[in-house]
Amino acid sequence: MNKFLIIDDDENIRDNIREIFELTGAKVYTAPNGREGIILAAEVKPDLILCDIAMPGLNGYEVKQSLAQSKETLAIPFIYLTAQADSESMRKGMNLGADDYIIKPVRAKELLDIVRNRLTRIGELKHISAAKNDDEKLSFDDKISLNTGKELIFVELKNIVAIIVSGDYTKVITSDSKKPILKKTLKEWEQVLPGKYFIRVHRKMIINLNYVEKIEPWFNGSLAAKVKGFPEIVKFSKRYSQVFKKKYKKG
């Protein structure tokens, strides 16, 4: 049985979400403010916390900061439930270690899908952290949740064209031209992506081979690729050119 903790100063929202989760058989705890939520989190150690941001007393950011200071609550998956959909608020929350955002108002099915996906992804990542080969990584048909800054979208891995470093974040380029940004390094992406399809081309980019139209020799033994939807040629570094040649050598 899953255990959920809902922290929100709006009683109607707490009760509505509690009823939705209880219909799935989950055990649900609620707290009307951040201080009580922190205490409950330490007591019941829920599988996931949904927390409002704008609350009197401790706000959602402060709740997450407090939970991060305790070993008992540090690793509990944390999702913001908020009406603040601007990118600055989201970036602040993700910098504090939040796993996701749910924008109010949210429908029951959407809420359940998001939470179910998050719990599934957490289980997958725990499994993958011990992976030794591509067979234990995510499937090419698996879906992951990505935050565009305005909405949460679900994307199949096969529809990711490329992943590019953007400051402390990575930008995910999808086949329908969406470009959500996540606080996730390329190294972390490499740990979960199936290496049969996704390859590193240089220190700031991973591409999906299914969208590569042509790969040809470039300068000084390196390679260059024409990627569908990209106006410019993608140039491999010399190091990753050698890795590619060794891994995908034919004959």
Q: Per CATH, which architecture of the largest domain?
A: 3-Layer(aba) Sandwich
Strand residue percentage: 25-35%
User: Which percent bin holds the helix content?
Assistant: 25-40%
Distance between the termini: 52 Å
Helix-strand category:
alpha/beta
- Count of helix runs: 7
Strand order of the largest sheet: 2-1-3-4-5
Number of strands: 15
Mean pLDDT: 82
- Gyration radius from CA atoms, angstroms: 21 Å
CATH topology of the largest domain: Rossmann fold
What is the total number of structural domains?
A: 2
Low-confidence stretches: 124-136
Quickly name the level 1 CATH class of the largest domain: Alpha Beta
Spatial shape: elongated
Going by CATH, what is the homologous superfamily of the largest domain?
Response regulator
Run of helices and strands? EHEHEHEHEHEEEEEHEEEEEH
Question: Keywords, please?
Answer:
alpha/beta; five-stranded parallel sheet; OB fold (Dihydrolipoamide Acetyltransferase, E2P); Rossmann fold; elongated; 15 strands; 251 residues; single chain
Kindly summarize this structure in a few lines.
By secondary structure, this protein is an alpha/beta fold. Helices cover 31% and strands 28% of the residues. It has helices spanning 11-22, 34-44, 60-67, 87-95, 108-128, 186-192, 238-247, and strands at 3-7, 27-31, 48-52, 78-82, 100-103, 143-147, 152-156, 160-166, 169-174, 181-182, 198-202, 205-208, 212-217, 223-227, 234-235.
